[in-house]
Structure formats: C-alpha cells, structure tokens
Amino acid sequence: MAAPESLAVQVCYALPEAAFLRALNLPPGSTVQQAIEHSGLLLQHPEIDLAVNMVGIYGKKKTLDTVLRAQDRVEVYRPLQADPKEARRRRAGGKGAKS
Predict the structure, then answer these.
(1) Measuring CA to CA, which of 7, 34, 40, 77 is 20 to 30 A from 26?
(2) CB neighbourhood size of 89 (10 A)
(3) What is the block-wise mean pLDDT of the chain (99 residues), using blocks of 10 residues?
(4) pTM for this entry
(5) Cα–Cα dist 1/19, whole Å
(6) 55 three-state secondary structure
C-alpha cells in the first residue's frame, strides 16, 4: 500500500466569541507545530505563545513535535481562567460534609 501524498488535518482554536477552524493538506511527517504555523492561526491570533499554550489532538495533550496522522484535529488551548477545584468549591458555597 502506497503512502499518502498529503495528510488532511484541521487546526482549531476556540474563543468565547468565535472559533478558528482551518482544514489543511500537509506532507506526511508533518508535526503539530508545522500544522499550526501553516494554518495562519499565529498571524490571526498573535497572543498565542506556543511556548505557553498547550496543544493537543482530539482533546489529548500532545507536544509540538508530535507527528500528525490523517484526519487529526490539532487544538490550541487557552490558559485556564480559574483553578477548576477552586471554582467547584465556590459553586458549592463552602458547604461542609454532611454528618
């Protein structure tokens, strides 16, 4: 079976008011970082710092040098606004355990 000549992948970045989603065809062996750079996301959203923002594929954290497979969706994650455990405690209203 012959290797594909290109990989069809997507790059996405979600904001509260909008989402960036771009379909790409990249050469086999392309990495997460190459997909992000090729998508134009960093030009459209210069606030993204790949040294700080986490990335993943279909909700699973990956490194920038991860080699892509056909149909992968590369995701760039925004930093958390609040610690999830602390937010849960606030929603619970500081209620103690029931006895």
Answers:
(1) 77
(2) 12
(3) 79 92 96 97 94 95 96 91 72 62
(4) 0.77
(5) 37
(6) strand
